[in-house]
Each structure stands twice: as C-alpha cells, then as structure tokens.
Request: fold
Amino acid sequence: MEKLFLIDALAYVFRAHHALPSMTNDKGMATNALYGFILQIQKILKDFKPEHIAIVFDGPKNKQGRLEIYEEYKAHREKADDDLIKQMALAQEYCELLGLKTLCVEGVEADDVIATLALFAEKQNAHAYICSHDKDLCQLASQNITLINTHKQNLMITPKKVKELFGVAPDQIRDYLALVGDASDNIPGLKGVGPKTAAKWLNEFKTLDNILANKDKVENGKKAALLDDYQEQLEINVQLTTLHHVEFKKSAQDFLIKEPDTEKLIEFYKNMKFSIFLKQLTQESSKKKSDDDPVDYQLIDTEDGCDALIQTLLLAEEICVDVETNHLDPMQASLVGIGFGIKPKQGWYIAFNGKLDPKTIVDKLRILFETKPFFGHNIKYDFLVLKRHGLVIQSICFDTMIASYLLFAHSHRHSLDHLSLEFFGKVKTSIKDLIGPPKLKQTLFDVEIERVKDYCLEDVDYTIRLKQTLQQQLKESKLEHLLFELEIPLLFVLAKMQDTGIFLDPYPLIALSDKLNHKIGQLQEHIFELAGEVFNLNSTQQLGKILFDKLGIEPLKKTKTAYSTASGVLENLQNTYPIAKHVLEYRIYTKLKNTYVDALPKYINPKTKRIHCTFNQTMAATGRLSCHNPNLQNIPIRTPEGLEIRKSFYPQKPGWVYLSADYSQIELRLVAHFSKDPTLVQAFKEGEDIHQFTASMIYNIPEESVTKQQRSFAKAVNFGIIYGQTAYGLSKQLNIDVIEAKTFIKAYFDRYPKVHDFLTQCIEKTKQTLKATTLIGRERKIPEIVSSNKMIQQAAERLAINTPLQGTAADLMKIAMLKIENAFEKEKIEGWMILQIHDEVIFELPESEVERAKPIVIQEMQQAMDLDVPLVVNVNIGKNWKEC
Reply:
C-alpha cells in the first residue's frame, strides 16, 4: 500500500444537503445530499485514481465520549432531519456497492477513526490523504499525511500550508483551537482571543501549557488575565480537540478497492432516479463486454431494394418511422434519410443523399404513408418534415414520447435517449458523436451514410421496444383513452397550427426597438446620476454594492455571497428610493427589447414570412400546452410596449381578421364544480361577478356596496386558493399583515365551506395515492407529498390542489380545440387555428367567415365538458392581436 485515501463522509453529505436544491426520486425520498456525495466520491476517484480507500462515517452515539467531558459539546446543533439520516445510510450503501471500504465505529466520531487510519498508514510507510475541510484534522498534517480540500480545486494542505493558513504548525492546531474555540462544535474559545492572538502566543510559547505557565509574560494584560478565569475551560477544550486513537482490526488489504457490483449499482441509480450516473455506468459497462445483442440494420440503396421493402412494410400492421434531417426546426429541415421498422433489432434506412433519387424515393413511398398507420418518438416532428417533402402521414397510432409523458408527467425526461437508458440500460449513440460540437457547424449531410443509418435505425429499434413497454403500462394505468382519444388526435391539430404559423410584421418592431433603446438610455443616465458613478447595471453584485454600500440603503435580503437585488426587493424599495424604481423599469424595458422586440423577427421563416413556433404536448406536468421557438404565450399584455408587440401580429391576407376566444374564470368554475359548494355554484349559474360576489360574502355587505379594494382582495383570495396560497403569501401580495390575511382566508372558507373540504380532500387523496388526477383521468405523480422535509411537502400540497384544476382546464381546452377543428372541417370554414394560450385560442380567418365561425367556436368550447356550472366564452374580433 503506497497511498491510503481517507474520506470524511459526513462532511460531504452534510455540505451537499445544505448546498444543493431539493431533489426527490419517484417515491418522494430526498436525494440531494446523496447526489452531491456521489459527485464528490466520483471526483476523488477520477482525480486521484486511488487503489486503497476508506469512507469514514460517524458511529452511533459518536459524541458520547466528548459529552462526558463537556455536556455542551455540539449542543447547538439541531437534530439531523430524517431526510439526512436516510441519505447517510444510502451513501454508505452506495460506497459498498462501488467496492469501497466503509468504516463506522460505535461511540466514535469519524475524525478519531480518520486520525487512527492516517497514523496506521504512516506506520505502513504509506502516504495518507485525508479528504475533508475539517480544520481539526490539520493537526495530523506531516511529511506522510496530507489533507485535501476538494472544494477548493484539490488544495493540498501540507504542514507548510497549515502554517500559512493558521499561523501555527500542525502540532499546535489542537492548542490553537482550544484558544480560539470551534463554533461548529460549540467549543467556546477564550473571550477576546482571535486567530491572530492565538497564533502569536503559540509562536512565542509553543504550547498552551507554556502559555498558562507564563501568564505573567503574556502581552496585553486584559487578555492574559482571562487565562486564570478560563483555565479550566481551556483544559476541557484541549481534551475536546485532541484526536484519539481507536482500537479496531485493520490491514492494508481491507482498504483495497474491489470490483463494483454493477447490476446492483444500476438498480440503485434507477431507484434514486440518477440518470447521469446511470448513463456513465452503463457506458463503462458496455465497453467492457462484447456486443451480445446483434441487430439487422439494413441500408436500402437500390430501386429493387426499395420496392421489396415497400412490399414488406405493406404487410405490417403498423410501422415505426424516424426521419434524419439537418435542422431541429421541422419547417427548415431537409431530409437526410428515413428509417423504418416493424420489430425490435431490425430496421431499414433509405438515404436521401445516397444512390437513389429523392423524387423516386418519395413517389415510391407515398402509398405507405397514405395507407398504413405509423408511430414514432415525437412523431409530430417527423410528420411536419415528411409533409414538406410530399409525404403525408394519414394515420398515427402511437407516440412513445407522449406515452411517456402521460405515464410520468412529473418528469421532464421524455427523450428517447433517456427512456432507452431508463428501461433498457442502453446508452444510445449521441448526435454529437456524429456531427461533433456546434462550432464545427456540421450536419448529418456531412456524415458517412453507414453511420447515419446505424444512428437512425437505433432510434427506430428502441422506439419499437419502448412502444411495447409503454403500451402495456398505459393499459395497466388506464391512460390509453388519453393517448388515443385526446393527445394523438390533437397532435394533428398542433401540427397544422405549427405548419400554418402566424404572420409578424418586423418593421414596427424595428421602430419600437429604437424607442426602447432611447428609454433604456434615459433610465441609465438617471440611475448613474443617482448612483454618482457609472457601473454595470446588469451586474447584480455591482448594483448591490451601489445600493447598499455606497448609498446606505438598508438591505432587505442577503444571499451567501452578495446582497439580493431581486425584483421583490426592489419593489419594496421603489416608493422610498427612486433609483430602485428606475432599475425595475430598466429591467422591464431591456427584457422586452432583448426577449421579444429584437428576438421575434429572427424567427420569421424566410419562405412563408410567418413564425412557426413549436407547440409542446409533453412539457407542463399539468397537461397544459407550451410553446417555444419562440414562446408566444408569454408576450406581455399589461404594458403599452407589450401591446405594441401584439399589434405587429396581424393576418397576412387582406380582408382577414383574428378571432380570439377564451374561457372566463375557468379554474374558479372548476373549483365550484369539484367542490359542489352550493353558494359558489349558484353564483356562477346566476352569472354573478364572482369577485364582487365573494367580497360581499366575506365582508357581509350588499354587492353594490363592495369597494374596488374589497373586490381586489376577494379576487386575490379566489385565485390564491387555486395555487394553495398561504396566509403569508396572501399578506405579501396584498401588503397586509399575516393575521389580517388569516382572517380573510377564514372568512372565505366560512362562506364557502365545501371549497375548504375539496382542498383538504385533494391533499389527503394525493397522500394516499401519491398522485393527483384531472376530471378525465390525467395523472401527475406527486410522491414528495409524503416527504419529511416540511418545505418540500408544502410545495407538493400546493401541487395536489392546483393539478386537478389547472390540469382539467388544460384537458378542457384540448377537447375544445379538437371539437372546433372537426366542426370547421365539417362546415368547411375557411381559416385556421393559429395560437393557443392556455385558456384562449386564436383563429385567422376571412372577415366574411366570422358570422359562421363565431357561434361554432362558442358552442364547441361551451360544450367541451359537462360541468355543474356554465362555461362562459368571451370572443373578440380584431385586425391584429392587440385588438383581440
């Protein structure tokens, strides 16, 4: 044994627990500390490649010995929460699966075990490396014992470094800590004696015993006088900071790293939902074993071969398809090739850049797409690319990405790469492996056809395997109806919307950009004038120093590294300090300019002159549709500039208009339906102004007497309950104290008791089933609702309330979109559905069609679901989006 690495396990687990954001697996178990611990262990193994290692944990009742010396030892520390204790045990299990020796000695702290092992290694003529940031262990530093602070770029702490850091030698660290104390262990130091004084005394007198023996020679009489008063405590401190030898059997062989248990590690990572570690391990494992899973991936590059393939595929019940292109945007992508498959381990690839003429390929394949049902992974992309190349899929029977989303809506990982790894332990070939990093600007046209063939057919192969697995799970979970009756039919509607796009006139935005530039420049001048200097306004650190250091504004919030200049902080300061108001305005205008005004024209398709954003069915856990490239659902509406942006969207054809239709207060109507609260249901049936009605109920006054502020308060509560808002949250929103907010919420539930019952039932049902469901059965797993971490659990309870409401609203809109599309086709309405924004849908159509289209839209939206309350739809007609 030449080297022995000693790992202070608690230090790593504890640090990760407090440093990393909340993480849970699908059973609601906290995993952030374990995740951070594994990262550090893997980093140590990678950086140092040790052959001998020991991962040291605190033993049960580890403080007992030192508590007998000093009963206040570590007394200030809160009891470790259940999450941390469970993760500590998992960290130990992980190390054992990895083949690393773990040590946990009853009644002994990890520091003492590490000290014992370090000295053991030294006697074996080996070098001990201690991975820890605990300064107690610095007393061990010697020629053969080095500490490593892995959090500081593997800083090596040698005897020389100890002297540099603390001003004393390693053999003086014990006395040094006795003098200055150790707040982390609740060891009180000598009052008024800091690091500099302690180092000075120890450099002069060498030891604490000598200092105590020569009190009369110590400079600074006041501090020296304390030595008499605190001598007993100092002697106790020395005992507490002394590292003790621990007797247990050990040999160099014990610490030799063993072969990991790969199968159990894979299962461990799967249970913890650690995809990144699972991928790494699977890649390493696959390199070690030969390919025992032969596949038949064929390149079709002759007309005869193509004809034979078509005959084979025509006999199949359904076909998996995957296209390879040169662009992520289906509206700009050119076909590189098409892959087909009908069973696992087999596939056929036709290259559009090979021996066959692309037009010949399209002509031959057309019969397939017109007659056979197809499936794929994110098949909307394939559908749009193929359509642009003259091949229109008439029937889609499955989409593995949507199926994954329906089963695991709480997860954001629905890529084929992730699912192949999760279900089959397969690390697929990455697109980067083929085209390299973005800076090379290569596409699949630049890659050998054989390699593209294998890449494409691997996708086809694992999509087929995945379909078999997910189809069964959908059946068992009774979610098939959502896929086949809602999501797949909607896929065609969304593809049509994406293909149609929306027209944007870029020229008004150029003028608006100049206008915003001027406003931003004026705001910068005002801010710099108030600050008394020019600084980087986009640097939160520099802004914090200006506001709170230079201008002396009382900071409302501070992070670990700097003052907080978040919007909430500035909003609280803006009425008192003009500079805060100007900074808020600066941020609003720069975001408008950068995110929308300057960015939107870049998305205009040069051929169609329209923006073709992508509508996502698999992003929002509630079932809502989302939109990206660009996101048109987030364009501001409450500012004049935001309205000017919307004004730039208008029908491309003369004589056409926009028709917008949105559900009125849909989520509140769903609260009434779910809760069956008679008062709330009746209010909606009678067409009351629900916020005014609620205010009259809470304040016990006639509706006509309700003030604007009272209505505003009632509105905040009405919408707040949908998101499980607390009294504290409401108090912040309305700028009232928490007691008043509590009173307000109580009054609300006194008037609507069934609503309170419904919210309670949502939480209780989710605790029992670990999932929330919508009215038509869509599921969102919320395992963290049983977490022992209070903050995680409360966040989960809010999801348990919000999901049935927002999710049902999303389902309602999807059903309405399908019904409208079918009705438009049946009635041969000229025009298109072009945009969906949660509770609103927008159409582009000739003005002459409005009279026919408007009642259809209203009727289909109102009749999309049968609820206990009426569905109200507001319709607006405009020559541009702003007018809607």
